[in-house]
Amino acid sequence: MNFKRPWRGLFAVAAWVAFSVGCATAPVREEHPRAARDGVLVHLSQGTNSPHRVLMALKMARIMCEDHDVAVYFDIRGGEVVLKDGKDLRHDAFTSSHQLLRELKARGVGLYACPICLKAIDKTPEDLMPGVETASKEALFGFTQGRILTVDY
Fold it and tell me: Which of 48, 64, 95, 148 could form an S-S bond across to 40 if both were Cys, CB 3.0 to 4.6 Å?
């Protein structure tokens, strides 16, 4: 040890001890609980006036439901799409709207219509297709435990 600078020797010993202890200790692997799956809210405000947008929204919901929690929210003119007597929309390269809605419901996707928007077009919840519910705060925020990612059409 150099007696003129004793801190150098102490530093060397401390570094050696820290290195030795660090190498001898096995790494501790923390187990993190699996994160909740994120949900996708497909927001559809277009109606029978825009078949391409409607069908793209329903197709996106169909794709996303394979590995995400999904809900579809129909407001403004979107409520027209989920009426019992609603038009079955068609457009090249897409499955029809009624078929897509049946597939979504069969896969457990929540289909929610805005109750105020229904009222604006003189319709009631009884006018909705089977499996479509009126939207509530609980339904729109409770369909997933993860984050809610929104896709607007």
Answer: 64
